[in-house]
Amino acid sequence: YYIRARAVDHCVQDFLLKTQSLPRTQILSLGAGFDSLYFRLKDMGLLHHTVVYEVDFPDVACQKATLIKGVKELSALVGDTGGKGIGAIAFSGDDYKLLGVDLSELSELERTLEEAGLNNEIPTLFIAEVVLTYMENTRSDALVQWAAEHFPRACFLLYEQVQPEDPFGRVMQQHFRQLSTALRSLALYPDCQAQQRRFLAKGWTECSVMDMNEFFTCCIPEDEQQRVQTLEPFDEYEEWHLKCSHYFVLAASKGMEPSWTPLSPSVTVPCHAGAVGVAGSVPAAVCAGLSGVPGLRRYGHRSVLIKPNMIVTTGGFGEEDGQHCRVRNFHLLSRHAGHWGAVCVTQNVPDQRWGERLYHTVSRLSDTLALVVGGRTSPSSTGLGMLWLKFPETWGASGPGDVAVELVSLQPAAEAAALRWRHSTTEITFKGEQYLFVYGGRSALEPVLGDWHFLHAPELSCTVISVEGPVPESRHSHSACSWEGGVLIAGGLGAAEQPLGSVFFLRELEHGFQWQTIETHPPLVPRYSHTAHVHEGKLLLVGGVWLHASSVPGVTVIDLMTGLCSNYVINVEHLEWPLMLHNHSSVFLPDEKELLVIGGGGNCFSFGTHLNPEPVLLSLSSILTSS
C-alpha cells in the first residue's frame, strides 16, 4: 500500500510542480472511492490554482459527501457551505467537486462534468487507480480515447495489475474472481508494453510505464528507501517483489509544454526486462505417493537427504492440524520399490527450543546425525542456536521411530554463526578434515550479512582459516552447494534489496581457501530464494524470484567448466494449480536425474496464502544429457 500511495503522490505532485506557473489546472480522479488525495494536497498547500473533481458511483459519492460533512476537519479544508448536493453533484466546494456518475456512461459523465465546471481547455490530470480494469474493455478504451480527444493539454495516471498468467498472477486473478470483480483489462493488456501501446493508439502522444519494483528502485530516493526499510522488522521479500511485479504505474500525456515525464528514473539500475532466453523445458508432475500429505504444504522449511531414498523435512510455515501456523512436526519421506511415502515423525524434545523455526539450515553429517543451524520464529526473535538431530540406526527400515533433538552447547566463538537466518551451511573439506561453512544471511542486528564461519565437525569448534580473493557482496536467500571440497555460492538478495546474479567458488588451497568468480554467459539473471544442486560439473538453480523479467525462473543449468548458462522453463501442463517456486526445498535424486520439490509459496499480498499443495517431481534427464 505504501508503494501504491507513493507512486500516485509522486506523479500528482510532479504534475502540480510542472504546472505551477499556469493560472489554472484541474485534476479528475476516476473511480476515486474514499481516497483522501484532495485533502492531503489541500493540507500541504499545493492546490492554489487547481480544482479537484472526483467521480464514482452515485451511492459511493453520497456516502463520501456525508462523511466529509460529518468531520469538521474535512469540512474546514474543503470550505463546506452546508448546502446540499444537486443532482449528480454530491458535494461542491470552491476547489473540490464530488460527482456520482457511472464511468461507463460517457455521455452522462461528460454532461455532469460540464455542469460541475470542468474546463476542457486547461491542463488536466486524469487519475485511474485500479479502476479501468473492472470495466468492459470497450468502455474503458472509449474513456481513455475520450480523454485524449476532448482535452488538448492532458496527462493520464494509471495504476493497476499486470502479468496474469504466471503463478502469482493466477492466484491474484482467482482472488478477484471470487469477489465477483474480475480483472477485465488483463486479457487484452497483459503486460506493461501492451498498456503503453494502448494509450499511444488511443491518442496520447507520450507514454511511459514501470512496474512497481522498477518504480521503487528508480524513482524513490535512496534515503527514503532506507527509511522505509528500517521502519519495522520485515522479512517478506519474495511476496513484496512478486506483488510489485504484478502492478504498474503509467504516465501518458499530450500537448504538455514542457513534457510531463514523472517516471524518468533518478537512478539507473541493471534491467532484465523482456524475455529470458530459453533452451528448452522440464516436465513437472505431482509425486503421487506424497499427494494429500498436509504437513508438506509449507514454506521457509528445509529438506535433506539423510541416506538413499530417505528425506527429512523440518520447520517452516504451513498447514498443521488443519490450520496455518509455524510447523513443529518433522516429516520423513521414504521410497520403497520406486514409490514415495511420507509419515509424520515424533520428536524427543528436551525443551521447546526447536519449535517453529523458519529459514534455518539442516546439514547431514552421517546416516544418523544432522545439524540444524539458526533460523527464526519472527524477524525479531532469532536467537535459536544450533540443534543436533539424531536418528536411530534402524531408522526407516522398521518404521519412522523417534528423532532425538539436542541443543548444541556452543563455544562463544561459534555463537555468531548460529544467530542468523536465510543463510547457508555447507559441508567442505580442508586438509582432509570435515568442516561446515556458514555464510551470509540476516540477523536481528544486520539486514544482510557477508561474514563466514568455519566449524570443525563434529565438535563444531570455530576455526580460523585463511581466505583470499575478492570477497562476495553481502547476501541472504542465496544458494550454496558443496563442490570439489569447496562451496559454490549463487545469487541472493543484496544490501540494496536487489537480487544478485553473481556466482562464486570458494576453492581449497594448500594454506587456506580462495574466492573465485565464475563468469557465466549469457550472464545469470539475478535471483534469490532459489535452491541449488551440483551434478557432474553442472550447477542447477531451481526456481527463485527475479525482477524485470517477463517470465518466472524455472531451472537454470550452469556448466562450471565453460560458464555456459542455459535456462529451462518448467512445463506445468499436468499440474492443476499454480506452482510457486520460492521458499521451497528440493532434493536431487542423481540415479533418476530427478528433482523432488517440496513445499513453496507464501502469502500473496491480500490475495491469500498459496502453498503448493503437493510435492512435484521435475525430470532433468533430457537437459542433463544435452546441456
TrEMBL record:
Molecular function GO terms recorded: tRNA methyltransferase activity
Top-level taxon of the source organism: Eukaryota
EC number per UniProt: 2.1.1.290, 2.3.1.231
Pfam families with a match to the protein in the record: Beta-prop_TYW4, LCM
Catalytic activity: 7-[(3S)-3-amino-3-carboxypropyl]wyosine(37) in tRNA(Phe) + S-adenosyl-L-methionine = 7-[(3S)-(3-amino-3-methoxycarbonyl)propyl]wyosine(37) in tRNA(Phe) + S-adenosyl-L-homocysteine; 7-[(3S)-(3-amino-3-methoxycarbonyl)propyl]wyosine(37) in tRNA(Phe) + S-adenosyl-L-methionine + CO2 = wybutosine(37) in tRNA(Phe) + S-adenosyl-L-homocysteine + 2 H(+)
Family: Belongs to the methyltransferase superfamily. LCMT family.
Protein name: tRNA wybutosine-synthesizing protein 4
